[in-house]
Design a protein that fits this description.
With 201 residues, the protein is mainly α. Helix content is 43%, strand content 10%. It has a two-stranded antiparallel sheet. It has a two-stranded parallel sheet with strand order 3-4. Helix 1 packs antiparallel against helix 4. The chain is globular.
């Protein structure tokens, strides 16, 4: 009942209420980034949702578009702007994803939506992370976020799929708020976010 019906209702009510409360901060950051970047303050990217359905995730733009001599984007840590670093550390870049939750593309809690290019790289078990809607936060995020291996992250995602409940979601939301204030697990040991997933070796 909760997984199939009540979870979406809960997500919608909390996300809409949260977005209204955070609207002044949302508008301030939007205007600031618009002036600072002199272009769109938002980052939109295709991501796979429930059952692999593609949607556009919305976040505040924290990186520039600098490229090397071959036209390839530079590493994340080389493109992260000073203001972007602050926004990412405080998790303010996640606020626009409340719109994704309101639209039904995402949930407050669930496996994080990753790149579309990773879809053919998952094994059968890892693909189970798409049995539920992706979340702004999740079980993997409160158990290491970007500091754990991809294999461990996927194990935690599938564990969440198998144990999804209202109580677990409340626990994850509470611990997420705690970790945001403590600023834990934002970067991996080698990348400013997380090293790319290259499949199962």
């Amino acid at each position: 009942m909760y997984k199939n019906v009540l979870k979406y209702i809960f997500d919608f009510i909390i996300s809409l209420s949260g977005f209204i409360i955070l609207l002044p901060i949302f508008l301030f950051i939007t205007l600031f980034l618009l002036l600072a970047n002199r272009r769109t303050p938002f980052f939109l990217q295709k991501r796979p949702g429930k059952d692999g359905k593609i949607f556009h995730v919305i976040k505040f733009k924290t990186m520039n578009e600098k490229r090397d001599t071959n036209g390839n984007l530079l590493r994340d840590e080389e493109r992260l702007t000073p203001i972007g670093k602050f926004i990412r550390k405080t998790s303010l870049d996640e606020i626009p994803q409340l719109i994704n939750v309101i639209k039904g593309d995402m949930s407050l809690v669930g496996p994080r939506p990753l790149l579309v290019g990773y879809l053919p790289l998952y094994n059968k078990k890892q693909s189970r992370r798409h049995e539920v809607r992706p979340g702004i936060t999740g079980w993997a995020q409160i158990n290491g976020r970007n500091t754990i291996s991809w294999e461990r992250k996927f194990e935690l995602d599938v564990w969440y799929v198998d144990h999804l409940s209202f109580t677990l979601d409340m626990k994850i939301l509470f611990l997420t708020i705690k970790k945001v204030f403590m600023r834990e697990g934002i970067s991996s040991t080698t990348y400013v976010t997380m090293e790319p997933f290259n499949g199962n070796n």
